[in-house]
Amino acid sequence: MRAVVYRGPNTLRLETVPVPRIGPGELLVRVAACGVCPTDIKKIQYGLLPPPRIFGHETAGTVVRAGARVRGFRAGERVALHHHVPCLQCHACRHRAFAQCAQYQRTGITAGFAPAGGGYAEYVRVMPFVLPGVVRIPARNSFIEGALLEPVNTVLKAIRRLALLRGDSVLVAGQGPIGLIFTRLLALAGMRVIATDLLPARLKLAREFGAAAVHCPAGPAPSPARRSAPRAPRPAAPNLATLIPRFTRGRGLDAAVITVPADDVVGEAQALVRGGGQVLLFAHTRRGTATPLDLATVCVDEKDLIGSYSADFQLQAETARMVFSRQLDVRRLVTHQFPLAQTARAVELATHPTPDSLKVVVTPGAPEG
Hints:
This protein is α/β, with parallel strands linked by helices. The protein folds into 2 domains: 2-153 and 311-363, Medium-chain alcohol dehydrogenases, catalytic domain (Quinone Oxidoreductase, Chain A, domain 1, Alpha-Beta Complex), CATH 3.90.180; 162-307, Rossmann fold. Helices cover 25% and strands 23% of the residues. The chain is built from 11 helices and 16 strands. Strands 3, 4, 5, 6, 7, 8, 15 and 16 form an 8-stranded mixed beta sheet that branches. β1 and β2 (11-16) form a beta hairpin. The longest helix is centred in the middle third of the chain and has 12 residues, at 149-160. The radius of gyration is 21 Å and the shape is globular.
């Protein structure tokens, strides 16, 4: 089969590799769609794992073979995969810190070499311990919707870490695909979301996803929900320190979600949340950096600084209901699709997004054209 093999920092090559052999408790799945995730981008850019690897973990496809001991799945079924499932028995799992579980940290889907997700290939092998995370895709839904269950799950897990009440005010910094998913899920939960981004097109979509207000730090003032006749040019936008007290009636934010790896945004958010509020980091995944922080805001003001990483397979059913019912219509996030042979181009676009790009997906089952 064909696969895109990581051979070193920023080096992806289309190669021919063996179709994975499966054991009696495993599935062989023909890949139809695989999203390009920032986590994999960082591994490819910075050489965080030794080559060779076949990356790609936001994966959906069709079961072509089920091992003799597999129950509940058969050839021909369309499925969304889930590459991390915890043991539910260790000390970390008993504290619901699933991403810290040793079994969870093993990748249960591979197309060859050391397991790394494998979605940038024509076929993947699904190991027994991650089968509880596999979800069937309804007939009316697409493979792309199935592939996006994984990033939606990570966002839902993160939101569950926030101590929010209906009607609370939440800043979502960054309106890329993940930020837009946060905006939509928080709005569905009854939160008043203020969305920020440098690109006006993304802020327009944030409005459509339920943001109560939007803000472009380097652009025009926050836009109203509707516009009538064209207006005269506006003065420069107020900064968030001016906007947030108006938006929250002087109370301050109840929470802020940081979906961009920008340290200055973290400091600004920590200042804007109320006493007892929370700042959640979602994009600071590269180790070895440090940033100044006034620790009294954590101790005296009781402002929690927390993180969330990866998904929770126990939320798969709820995630699937949201996506497949299209309460969260993830199709609107996908702007670019690339065939397998152009995976390097897909990764490049996702690494350096353009004003018209959002979610990028590789479709190994599509014609090369």
